[in-house]
């Protein structure tokens, strides 16, 4: 199957770190991606990681990939209210992309 | 060219009417995708084009749905005889593969409400 699973909801206080987790079943993808969707808007690519990497850091974002467990995580440091959105992890990007239901991040001021 | 654009942004129609949506991709991108997103769900793949060729269609794409990309640039998605269950956000994305990395850039979506 091509399932991607994420927890539905995460609430954090402003300034804390957020960790959004994702598990996937298809390990054939070369890249894995994180997208952000703000209310009523399209999806915005946040970052991606090559499947041969374990970690990628991009400013406040850190992506960790555990290929053995098929687990991907996105850590947002110093979470801001502007980070409130739905976050989707996806695998592939070649031809069709499979999305899960996403994780809704709520940042409490 | 600042990104993928979609038109209209919102559409309200009565059940049974036909609607057509347009997507203008990033100009150098050869792949174009259509997705449908309902409330509380992630986007679901509908179809994709490489240049003007439609290479894959989801089983979600019933006979009432048709998509075209006649010149390999913009694309249209038409829904005939709309049903209330067609109410959703329709997202378009375009991409260009470089060295195995294919990043899809999404448009703002067209929100359809069928009354």
How would you portray this structure in words?
The complex is a heterodimer of chains A (109) and B (115). Chain A has strands at residues 4-6, 9-13, 18-24, 31-37, 43-50, 55-58, 61-66, 71-76, 85-92, 97-99, 103-108. With 109 residues, chain A is an all-beta fold. In chain A, a hairpin with a 4-residue loop joins strand 7 (61-66) and strand 8. Chain B is mostly beta strands. Chain B starts with a strand and ends with a strand. The mean pLDDT of chain B is 92. At the A-B interface, strand 4, strand 5 and strand 10 of A face strand 5, strand 9 and strand 10 of B.
Helix content bin of chain B: under 10%
Q: Given the structure, what is the number of helices of chain A?
A: 0
Amount of beta strand of chain A = over 45%
What Rg of chain B do the Cα atoms give? 14 Å
Ends apart, CA distance between termini of chain A: 39 Å
* Regions with little confidence, pLDDT below 50 for 5+ residues of chain B: none
Sequence of secondary-structure elements of chain A: EEEEEEEEEEE
User: What is the mean predicted local confidence, pLDDT of chain A?
Assistant: 88
Distance between the termini of chain B: 35 Å
What portion of residues of chain A is helical? under 10%
User: Which residue ranges of chain A are poorly predicted, with pLDDT under 50 across at least 5 consecutive positions?
Assistant: none
- The geometry of chain A reads as globular
Shape of chain B: globular
SSE order of chain B in H/E notation?
A: EEEEEEEEEEE
Count of DSSP H/I helices of chain B: 0
Structural class determined from secondary elements of chain B: mainly beta
Number of strands of chain A: 11
Q: Helices and strands of chain A: which structural class?
A: mainly beta
Largest interface: A-B, 23 and 28 residues
> Main sheet of chain A?
6 strands, mixed
